[in-house]
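Here is this case:
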Amino acid sequence: MSNLFCNAPFCQNTRNPNHAWCSTHRWEREKYKIKVYKEVLPYWCLKKCSVHGFLKSNEVYVYPNKKHKVCLQCREANRPIYDPIKGKEYNDRHSDRRKDRRLKKRYKISIDAFQALLSHQNNSCALCNISIEDHQKRKGSNHWFAVDHCHITGKIRGLLCIKCNMGLGYFNDDIKLLKKVIKYIGLNK
């Protein structure tokens, strides 16, 4: 049996042994009445850059959303240079808005409700009573207190520092286990 590839130039599709063309090119020949395929790629399948003209397939950058195709040289030339100072300024300007969006998405409360809850707790952790200023000075702590909530009902219990929040998380909010911990600490004091 001879070559079972399509007879159209540059086509690597397999063909039916009874036909000379693959199904795509058979359909194309019937629809557009194509008699002969040339040895060059058709005009409609070439990518064109407004600056650099026609491009080869390895010269085209396809954005991840697959809607825009750009010449690699133009992409590199138009790529913005990262400025860490501008990035920090942007983050400082938009941190409250970002925090508000996150609170609304995760816990269904606004930043105002968060601030009211914090002032109700005297600007301190609900368990260990560390102030928010001391919390921010701790190495590796977040700028904000963590929102403690019931994972079953979603009800917000209060605001905790990072250590108290992680401690509750490690014990899986299990009251029996926490009572055992209290008893253990009391016995070994």
